[in-house]
Amino acid sequence: MKTRVLSSLIALGTALLCAGIACAEDYPYKPIRLTSPEAGGAGDVAARLIAQGLTAGLGHQVIVDNRPQLIGAELVKRASPDGYTLLQGSGSFFLGPLLRKTSYDPVRDFAPITLATSAPAMLVANPALPVKSLEELIALAKARPGELNYGSGAAGGGTHLAAELLKTMAGINIVRIPYSGDGPVTIALISGQIHVAFVNMGSVLPHVKAGRLRGLAVASKQPAAQLPGVPTVASLLPGFESGSLTVIVAPAKTPTPIINRLNQEIVRVLNRVEVKEKFASQGVEVVGSTPAELATIMKSQIASAAKIIKNAGITAD
């Protein structure tokens, strides 16, 4: 009798616990929401590829919910830590709080799942600018200090920080012209309104191949397979690296078994041949890290960005 009563009490306690935070062995039992910015953009394509594969792997629908990055992050931070509300974030998710007041801390308030993809930035120039290499650009900028300009998106964003890092490492003075994002920067480059810019490679790849823009260098460790012959920035300025990261996180305190299950399923999706090929065609590299690796990467990126922001005296637009 006592054994039956004890078993019943344990079962009741487990049921109550599962009702509150969801039991890993029962996960998932309902649809999952994946918040993502950029409806129709590259980030949205990535989110929908991942969501489609996760739906098949988990047996429950994963719904993509497009929200502005900071709003989506705040929504996920407040969500129950049960694995049913996730965030696909870009660099602005974990770098944005360095310049803008937010209600969340990207390290404290989220549980890392995986670094999904990485897309290197590319330094591109308007073809009318009389330079055909990074070395020639640096020489021209030193000969004409303060006369050349570069375009970038939001202050403190990845492409802005890349340009400021280039200025520091190369010892040049080029003037920033702010835009609302990669799209307007690319249009301004093609029309000749600005001289150069770091832009996510996938955004400008067609324009470089068509000759509308000139690719001077890529900001990855290795040359880009899509653009043979275009060197890395690091080949001239050792250690230089910049790009756009796509991360998947959950609310802090999400149970480790659920985090691990999500990591395994997402990495499995990312490693499919057709998914890798889809990303590669857009200049994006599949990563699929462990949760611990993502935690280390985010902390390192935040520390590096904070240093650039301080040294360059960057403030919010």
The CATH architecture of the largest domain can be given as 3-Layer(aba) Sandwich
> What is the name of the CATH superfamily of the largest domain?
Bordetella uptake gene, domain 1
Q: What is the CATH C level class of the largest domain, in words?
A: Alpha Beta
Q: Please tally the β strands and state the result.
A: 10
Secondary-structure element series: HEHEHEHEHEHEHEHEEHHEH
pLDDT below 50 for ≥5 consecutive residues: which ranges? 5-17
The average pLDDT score comes to: 90
As for the CATH topology of the largest domain, it is: D-Maltodextrin-Binding Protein, domain 2
Backbone shape: globular
Structural class: alpha/beta
Could you give a short account of the major beta sheet? 10 strands, mixed
User: What share of the residues does DSSP label as strand, in percent?
Assistant: 15-25%
How many domains? 2
Helix content: 40-55%
Gap from first CA to last CA: 70 Å
What is the alpha-carbon Rg in Å? 22 Å
Give the count of helical stretches: 11
